[in-house]
Design a protein that fits this description.
By secondary structure, the protein is mainly alpha-helical. InterPro entries: TraX (IPR008875). It comes from Bifidobacterium apri. Pfam families: TraX.
């Protein structure tokens, strides 16, 4: 028998028009799959290059192909984490505390992220994508405030401006910039806005997110297809499980980066 945490989550989803599928990925499964893609990316940028004897500028096309495949496939995780952010926003008891937890995770993860992606302890060329989740949360909370407190053109002006601001900050700070071309931060925010705004229209939401993912090098669209198989259930019995997933991100990056620093 599942505990109160799972029961409250399912009841809330039902009240909001959730689908209550009996089969499909639970939230636990979504988090686990997302972490596996993070692990794939971390291994592909740290352990594998050394194992394959690849060096930047090398003409070893076989090794380069393997590394590129690992990186591109890992982008499947983007819609998973965007969806998890929106669900976290929907179900948290305190948006402020949720935001502070994400901000703390982003700050803690920055050095491990830089070590894993650039081999440096500090690198401003790309910031870890958790910062994009913080921006997305702020944007969604601001939109909710505008919808509840403003009307007419003022409401829409705020909604448009805060959305643009969130995307702009992600671009300017190079949040989640991968290979100098894939802006993970922008896609995380964009996907979160789609999942937030179209939550009551499953098929339209998934189609829109899928098209957006396809524009960003195809693989994020695969993640959207995976999400479409989800069911509205936490899938774990203890509240502390979520803290394990918070810790997994920086720990994974650090463990992969340390052997090659």
């Amino acid at each position: 028998m599942e505990d109160t945490v799972t029961g409250e989550y399912t009841e809330d989803q039902t009240a909001r028009g959730g689908h209550n599928r009996r089969k499909g990925m639970t939230t636990f499964h979504v988090k686990t799959v997302g972490w596996l893609f993070v692990l794939l990316s971390a291994i592909g940028t740290t352990v594998l290059p050394s194992a394959l004897g690849y060096r930047p500028g090398s003409d070893d096309m076989a090794a380069m192909t393997v590394l590129v495949i690992c990186e591109v496939v890992s982008w499947t995780a983007v819609p998973l984490y965007s969806w998890l952010l929106v669900q976290g926003y929907r179900h948290t008891h305190s948006v402020a505390q949720y935001g502070l937890r994400l901000l703390a995770l982003a700050v803690i993860s920055e050095v491990p992220y830089d070590m894993a992606t650039s081999g440096k302890v500090w690198d401003m060329n790309s910031q870890n994508p958790v910062f994009a989740l913080v921006f997305a949360l702020i944007v969604i909370a601001a939109i909710d405030w505008a919808r509840e407190n403003l009307q007419g053109i003022s409401k829409w002006a705020v909604i448009v401006l805060v959305s643009i601001a969130g995307l702009a900050w992600s671009l300017l700070l190079h949040v989640g910039l991968r290979q100098g071309m894939f802006n993970m931060g922008v896609l995380l925010i964009g996907m979160a806005l789609v999942f937030y705004a179209m939550d009551a229209h499953e098929n339209t939401m998934m189609m829109t997110a899928g098209v957006l993912g396809a524009v960003f090098f195809i693989m994020p669209a695969v993640g959207v297809a995976m999400l479409h198989t989800r069911r509205d259930e936490l899938g774990y019995r203890h509240a502390w499980t979520k803290w394990v997933f918070y810790a997994l991100y920086p720990v994974t990056l650090l463990l992969c980066a340390l052997p090659v620093i």
